[in-house]
Design a protein that fits this description.
CATH topology: Immunoglobulin-like
CATH architecture: Sandwich
Structural class: alpha+beta
Strand order of the largest sheet: 5-4-8-9
CATH class: Mainly Beta
Oligomer: single chain
Radius of gyration: 18 Å
């Protein structure tokens, strides 16, 4: 009987808690679990295969999204690679929620973080080049920017992901 109770307890503890709100995700300490939580609440925008970057790192086609979807765009042009402290590219946001106040940007590739920070969102939706510092990527490959858009009170309004190929400098 005790063995069954122990097995049941282990099974219950091993099951991840389902987050209901962005605040639940924000309170998760483990980075991968927190990002996974956000992905469940705000699924990444999956691009069709014909919009993946070609060997030059440029997108083959542009996509449009429904008006209610916040969109993030940027370019790796003029971003220095292999630098301990590098300036991030300019970011352009479209269809921001009306009460968006700040954005937290984080650059990752797989499990590795390359830095980022939180900045106030300008009314025009453009975060200027160099507003955010990061570690410049060295290896070519797909890198992900995760943008967490918040209200003035810190409530998470949206989480947007964009994967893009980083070319060799």
């Amino acid at each position: 009987m005790r063995l069954l109770l122990l097995i049941g307890l282990i099974w219950i503890i091993s099951q991840p808690a389902s987050a209901q709100t962005p605040s639940d995700c924000q309170s998760i300490v483990v980075r991968d679990a927190r990002l996974s939580c956000y992905d469940k609440l705000f699924p990444p925008n999956n691009r069709p295969p014909d919009t993946l970057p070609d060997v030059s790192g440029q997108n083959k086609t542009q996509i449009s999204a429904p008006a209610e979807t916040t969109i993030l765009d940027y370019s790796w042009a003029d971003v220095a690679g292999c630098k301990r402290i590098a300036k991030a590219p300019a970011f352009r946001f479209y269809n921001l929620p009306a009460n968006a106040h700040s954005v937290s940007l984080l650059l990752t590739k797989g499990d590795r973080e390359f830095g980022g920070q939180e900045v106030e969102l300008p009314a025009n939706g453009i975060v200027q080049e160099g507003s955010i510092t990061m570690e410049g990527p060295c290896a070519p490959g797909n890198y992900r920017w995760t943008a967490t858009i918040k209200s003035a009170t810190g409530v998470i309004l949206a989480v947007v992901h964009l994967d893009r190929w980083f070319p060799v400098n």
